[in-house]
Amino acid sequence: MQNVINALRVLEELAGRQPAGVGELARELRLPKSTVQRSLKTLYEAGWIRPAGGAVTRWQVTSKALQVGRRAELGLRDAAMPVMEELRQRTGETIHLMVPEGDAVVLIERLETDKPLRIVLPLGIRLPLHASANGKAVLAHVLAHQERPLAELPGYTDTTITDPAALRAELAEVLARGYADNRGEWRSDIAAVAAAVLGSDGPLASLSVSTPASRMSEELRAEYGSLVTQAARTLTATLT
User: Fold this and answer.
1) Where does the pLDDT of residue 54 fall: very low under 50, low under 70, confident under 90, or very high at 90 and above?
2) What dotted CATH number matches 2-61?
3) Does residue 19 have a cis bond before it (omega within 30 degrees)?
4) What is the DSSP secondary-structure string of 31-88?
5) Is 200 helix (H, G, I), strand (E, B) or coil?
6) I need a labelling partner for 109 at 20 to 30 A (CA). Which of 18, 123, 194, 196 fits?
7) Cβ contacts of 114 within 8 Å, gap of 6 or more
8) Domain residue extents for the chain
9) pLDDT digits (tens, 9 = 90+) for 113-147
């Protein structure tokens, strides 16, 4: 059983760092190099990883892992759709479902507003964790479960939070009120509120209400924040 657990830990760590070698993985996981090497050999033989650039000293995840993830996303979408539809009906705005992937959140489903002025984001787009409502909703819970340093934070607009201390303070507020908001921090024309969908080990996804910045008043921000928090809790309960 421990061999299986070690292999899964190596796979998870590799997915976040790929391409990576034995030494790097061993240091991060605090495992002997021999243990990591055996796990990599098992994962390679099972088709989960392959040499990066043909060099067996560094490894990356294969499409097999992505296929399993896509099947999991389909289950998440199925559970999320009725919750998203109710949220769209109650707000009249665009609803996004995103999942965490490395240092970003990825849009996997959306329900668009009927209003003529709207923001349309393509499925598969990646948004930065620190500069989007969905990202901050996820990151707040990630940091609540595990302490980790915040890397250099790039700016996208004048309102992007780039100071790590300021971001941590913002994420503490996210946890306290239950939802994150975006005040034009990724694109100045977009405003949003988002809440995390939680699993036993942390955030699985996030739901958001997204609007043109000109339409998000402070009153609506609070109202939509409450609604998206309720929706995320409903989806969390459905999945668990």
Assistant:
1) low
2) 1.10.10.10
3) yes
4) --HHHHHHHHHHHHHTTSEEEETTEEEEEEE-HHHHHHHHHHHHHHHHHHHHHHHHHH
5) coil
6) 18
7) 92
8) 2-61, 66-239
9) 999 988 888 988 999 999 999 999 999 998 887 66
CA angle, 60 then 125 then 89, to 5°:
135
Contact in structure between 179 and 120 (CB atoms under 8 Å): no
Specify the amino acid at residue 235: L
- 184-193 residue pLDDT tens: 999 999 999 9
Return the exposure string of 137-147: e unless at least 16 CB atoms fall within 10 Å of the residue's CB, then b: bbbbbebeeee
pLDDT of residue 91: 96
Would you state the structure tokens that stand for residue 182, as one six-digit string? 């975006």
Rounded Cα distance between 159 and 187, Å, is 9
Structure tokens at 151: 């890397």
200-222 mean pLDDT = 92
Task: Write the burial class of residue 177 (CB in 10 Å: 0-12 exposed, 13-18 middle, 19+ buried).
Answer: middle
Query: b vs e for 9-31, b when ≥16 Cβ sit within 10 Å of the residue's Cβ?
Result: bbbebbbeeebbbbeebbebbeb
pTM of the model: 0.71
CATH of 66-239 given 3.40.50.620, 3.30.460.80, 3.30.450.40, 3.20.110.20 = 3.30.450.40
